[in-house]
Amino acid sequence: MPRYHGEPPGVRVYTVCDESKYLVVKNVPALGCGDELLRLFSTYGQIEECKPMDAEDCEPFTDVYWIKFHQVDNARFAKRKLDEFVFLGNRLQVSYAPHFESLSDTKEKLEGRRNEVLARLKPRSSNASAAYGHGPSARDQSLGLQQREFGDSHYTARSGGSASMTHVSSDKEYFPLESMNQTVCLVREKLNEIQSSTDNSEVQSSKRPRVDNRRRI
Q1: Which CATH number characterizes residue 55's domain?
Q2: pTM for this structure?
Q3: How many of the other CB atoms lie within 10 Å of CB of 47?
């Protein structure tokens, strides 16, 4: 039934069983405009077949067309946009035709809707688990904290309760070759000389010069 100008649209709800990739388009002007109708509907998705239905009852000077889309989503989008669309002066009447579906078409449609619902529910479940602290991030943080505490206690127990590191004596020979040990000794002596000269300069700079307060005649 056509809707008058200014009349609010009625609420229409379709289940997955009502929807289909097969559409029946009524109230098409009988002007041989099948190609124009095909181009109009093909803007909303790939169309596998489009043909007139001569045996279908219709109003005078109008035709009925049968359209098969490649996917149900495209057919749903086309029906929502083109139902009651003005085409060459007539308002198109687009409706689903699930009775043309085969068993494989129905199975594919139900499986696609199932995957769509699962994809929509998956982000919500992951966000809810993260909000309640059951997500992988909270578990990883707790494990990392336990490992860090265990490592600190293990290091403290091995070091005898002190966190200071042990130093190797400077008189110990580090390398198996004598030449390398001699080089280390020379470097150590040079460093000691530099350190002693630095200490002497600091001591001399710390001494204040005496001020002669005696009166001169």
Answers
A1: 3.30.70.330
A2: 0.50
A3: 20
